[in-house]
Write a structure and sequence with these properties.
Rossmann fold; nine-stranded antiparallel sheet; binds adenosine monophosphate; D-amino Acid Aminotransferase, Chain A, domain 1; Dna Ligase, domain 1; 10 helices; four-stranded parallel sheet; alpha+beta; single chain
């Protein structure tokens, strides 16, 4: 067990690291952030920061030796150097899970191996392979870069055979396009002793491929919710997770659940847990990686989380005036378009979600 008073190292300095650092501080831990940028949102609330590149082996080694456990707050850190850190300190979730989540083909292959339903897919590394894959998977389909894709970046829609010309190069995956009726996610945590807890499935609404809103709980039947939770727990167990994992899923018209993506870290669709659950996803991560007992995931009330993206953040004051709104700003200076600046959670304290106009 890593006791309060110890130092937790976090790779990455964004808002997820910031909210993890705040949760760690509440439990009496110190936090050391490692990230390439000066003045990142997380280092504002952490005791130590190292500004260094993710492939600077020497700097990373120094960092690893200065902390008691390492975790991470975003996926696109090169897995190789993170695996190296295991020589000096425990890194949780295990970087093998990070490596799988970084590569869409490996991720889907790992899920298939666990018997988890996913979209139809084929690895595609050339225009010729794309043509062949389109023949097997059929239209419509989505072509995605295998690595570094997020928020819809590096994706091309294939609607007709001629769209093969939209070949984007590099290592890719072709996925059958799912006419889903809802996107949901389940956040699951697993402790060092194998205990598993999960949060209820939530509905995720995207705008321009970026998460716009999360509705908690997702408006789905209890049996479907239990099925989604079981899938997430099976994945956590199958991957031997220690830490927190977000599982993004599609629900089809026929109520089939297909897993789309994994993220072995706190997730934007779990921000509502800060204000509406007995234990937030951030505290849960800290508990899991430090070997503490996991906390209750019980929901105290229903909630609706709204991301404040780019100029949305200018509305911050109006949210403060709403009695059941909880505002979280990430301390970022520039409100660039598409940049997540903060979020607000509307709590259904009297049984009804506060509607925004
Ligand atoms: P991703 O980067 O895989 O999370 O994709 C971003 C968004 O694109 C998802 O949240 C979905 O709304 C949509 N999307 C991704 N893959 C598919 C698919 N195979 N079929 C339909 N929509 C998809």
């Amino acid at each position: 067990m890593i006791l309060p008073g110890s130092t937790i190292g976090i790779l990455g300095g964004g808002q997820l690291g910031r909210m993890m650092a705040m949760a760690a501080a509440e439990l009496g831990y110190h936090v050391h952030i490692y990230c390439p940028e000066e003045n990142c949102p997380a280092s504002e609330v952490a005791k130590f920061t190292t500004v260094g590149d993710y492939d600077d082996a020497q700097e990373l080694k120094r960092f690893a030796k200065s902390v008691d456990v390492v975790t991470y707050e975003f996926e696109n850190i090169p897995a190789g150097p993170v695996i190296e850190l295991k020589k000096f300190v425990s890194v949780l979730p295990d970087p093998s899970i990070l490596a799988a989540a970084q590569h869409r083909v490996h991720e889907k292959q790992a899920l298939r191996k666990l018997g988890v339903p996913t979209t139809e897919f084929a690895p595609v590394n050339s225009e010729k392979e794309l043509k062949k894959a389109l023949d097997t998977i059929g239209l419509p389909a989505v072509l995605k870069t295998a690595r570094m894709g997020y928020d819809g970046k590096g994706q091309a829609m294939m609607r007709k055979a001629a769209d093969v010309e939209k070949w984007i190069g590099g290592e890719c995956i072709l996925e059958g396009f799912i006419k889903f009726r809802m996107e949901i996610s389940v956040i699951v945590a697993r402790g060092t002793n194998g205990t598993i807890v999960c949060y209820p499935p939530v509905q995720n609404i995207h705008k321009n491929h970026i998460l716009s809103e999360t509705i908690a709980p997702a408006p789905i039947t209890p049996p479907l919710a239990r099925k989604a939770e079981k899938i997430a727990c099976d994945i956590a167990k199958g991957l031997n997770l220690v830490g927190l994992l977000a599982v993004e899923m599609f629900i089809t018209d026929k109520d089939k659940i297909l897993v789309n993506e994994l993220a072995p870290r706190p997730h934007n669709s779990g921000h509502w847990t800060l204000d509406a659950c007995l234990t937030s996803q951030f505290e849960q991560t800290i508990r899991a990686v430090c070997g503490l007992p996991l906390g209750s995931t019980d929901r105290m009330c229903d909630a609706r989380m709204i991301n404040l993206i780019g100029n949305d953040v200018k509305e911050w004051e109006s949210y403060l005036k709403k009695p059941t709104a909880r505002l979280h700003l990430y301390g970022k200076k520039e409100a660039r378009s598409g940049r997540k600046m903060g979020h607000v959670t509307l709590l259904s304290v009297k049984g009804k979600i506060t509607m925004m106009n």
